[in-house]
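Pipeline run #58 for the internal structure catalog. This entry was flagged by the ingest filter as a single-chain record with no existing model, so it goes straight to prediction. Upstream metadata was stripped on purpose; only the residue string is passed forward. Reviewer on rotation: M.T. Logging verbosity set to normal.
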Amino acid sequence: MTVTTGGSGYTAPPTVSFSGGSGTGAAAVAVMNGTMVASLVVTQAGSGYTSNPTVTISGNAQAEAYAYTGSHRRASFMRSRFNDMYVIDGMGRGLRWNGDAGQMQPVGIVGPVIGPKMNVTAGDGALSVASVDIMKPGAGYTQAPTVSFAGGSPTTPAAAVASIAGGRVSGVRVTESGAGYTATPTVTLSGGQAGGASFSVGVSGGVASVEVVASGTGYTGTPTVTFSSAQGLTKANAVADVTNGAIQNVAVLASGSGATTSGVTASVAGAGSGASLKPVMAYRVTGVTVTNGGTGFYTPPTVTVTPDSADQNYTQAYLEATINSTGGVASVRVLSGGQYSLPPTAVVLDGQATATASMSPRMSGKYKCAIRYLDSTPVSQQGPIPSSISELVEVDAGASGGLMTWNFTHPYLEDRVSAMELWRTTADQSVALFRVATIQRTDPAFFGSYADKLSDNDLTDTERDGYGLMPVTLPSGQINARRFEVPPGNYGVAVMFQDRAWFAVDTTGKKPNSLLFSEVDEPESVPPTNEIVVQESIGDSDAVVALIPMASALLIAQSRHLYKLQYVAQPIIDASILLASYRGVLNNQCWDVMGGVAFIADSFGLYAYDGNSEQPVSAPVDNLWRDRVIDFTQSDKFHVKADYATKTVRFYFCRNGETSTARALCYCVSTQAWWEEEYPSAITASANMAILSRQDVVYGAASGFVRSGGFADAGSAVSFRLRTGNMPLTNADKGSRTIGLLYAPTADDANLTAALHYNNSPTARPNAIGSDRGEGFVSTKGATGAVLNLKRRRSQLGDASGFAKAYYAGNVDDKSAGADRHVAVSLTGQQSTAGNAVVIHGVTLEGAGG
């Protein structure tokens, strides 16, 4: 069935009923797209229908549909780039076969008839963990640390996992948002680090300055300042400046060196008392000794010099560490000694990472929810194939939703469906859907309910298992989530062209020149917006009959016109359609392509189209078309097939009075010769096939058998008949009248009869006399024709030579209107076994042909 008008304003799927057509029992369900009817699916075919019934869709929203009944129609076959086979006949959406399954499937998947029923459990105002932010990345991590949350009194604790890069914590992903938090929990990152390394720092210090703590009294001259040497300081020298017996300052004349620890003191020698001095030291790092190499260091750690907490003014030293094969720190080299007022220490830099949690309600605001179906096509065959999404169901989670429950019912569910996907938006937007989960058909939840507790952050987390993003529409405005519409059931012709499936020939007659096309590499996704119409600008109404893929163009063949369609990427935007020829096609099977040339049969004859121009090729036999020898009332049975191996194009047709295509007009492209073939059974279809690595033509006979390379005997003899064209008779005095036959001798008896048809007579003329000249042919008086036994060993005289001759007569008299004027030769017989194949190499006719 086909929906011709979707209507609008439906709040629930309407009821579908049938009337008329003299049948009973048909039933169908409506598939919705929002508030309109998208398609109808037959759930019960009914019986007894003699004509198409009327379809009634309940409600006042004006949806309309068309139903098909009756006889079969010729089908179109097409194959996708992934070797799936599709069969389209305009009496439904067609069938698909993947080459492996035991039975065919309907093309495409009908989407859910109704959307999910949604319930939200209100929260208590408590919060969930929305994200975890890294405050300090730490260093030396060889494994991701464990993330733990503490505090906040949750009803459901949160959980998260950390990731590292370059030995540092690079991020934390929340895997469980938790619920019921009344305060922000503390985040702890533990484990995963190398550790245990310790160092001793060697320094060398000198006096930078001397601070006067107490000036004293009674000092005269320039008293000497002396420094203690117990800490290794040597060669330090300074003098005091005295004013009014008090020491005002101390000038350092030589800083000295060698101090390895703190505790250097200074004193004043000479007269006076009460002065107190404090040396200010300047230490530089001269070396770092590894006292414990630690474990787990698989990359050299950053070792830093840490100043004493009382050292407020220092210049940083820089170090470089190396590691050994066991993961320990082997050595530390000083790159720059720096300057410190107190001896520093050395540690591994930034050992522990720290993080903090950001909180938000689990769900808040309005969400749009939908489901869609999947089949079981494997990924290797571009699967699984989805349906379009259901209607979008809105659910309001309020200020603090805690749990979203999905409830499912499936009023109509195809056997092809193997799973269901759940999709919803983040809060307060309807542009993009995110996949919540995939539920297998075997899962009890498929026909029940599903508990969804994903927060917006969880939903949009690209590392979440099952994550998926699907815009409802693309930025260009094209549909996206609903592009997986099943192909229309009322288009009877389909072909693959470039990367899309194309559909034409509306069997309802409402859109005679419309073409629909699929999405890229999605032959089963045909949204109704993908439509192109062949515009009638030639002053002649016509309708599309066939589609012919040929090289870079798709030929659109009407009954009397031929158009050429080409596009670059998006047909709705950049397709061009040009009138190519004022010739058409009889039906969607009356064409074939060979060597880049399309051979097409229409009501005027057979013609060739090479992509640029058409060339008539049937002029020698056009009388069959012109004189109505061909019965065009049977033209729906005709078809054309090109045999590349023999460069022959065959047009299977019916003569007047015939009802089956048991004959073909044959055209040799190489020699431009024409002849007619007859067959013991009607050839109803044919196709190319690779058989034992050889391209061959496979024929479908009316009896239902498929035969390759001709007809198999199936245990009985196969008849053959060949008749030449008419050839004018010449006067007898210009030579003898003989029929010469060059043939391949057979192993067993195989009789061939050569008969003569004078003056275009449909029957052969009986023999006037009997004759056996020993040249192969034997004629009997009164019988029709001369008989040749093709058997190789015919007598004791030896094997047959493969050439035989028969004699004939003909009354040629230019003055007599009843005299013989021309003659045609017919060859008939039977082939009984494969070993006795009848092979005729040539026929010669003396006394005729001019």
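catalog note: The mean pLDDT is 87.
catalog note: The CA atoms of residues 160 and 561 lie 67 Å apart.
status: ready for reviewer M.T.
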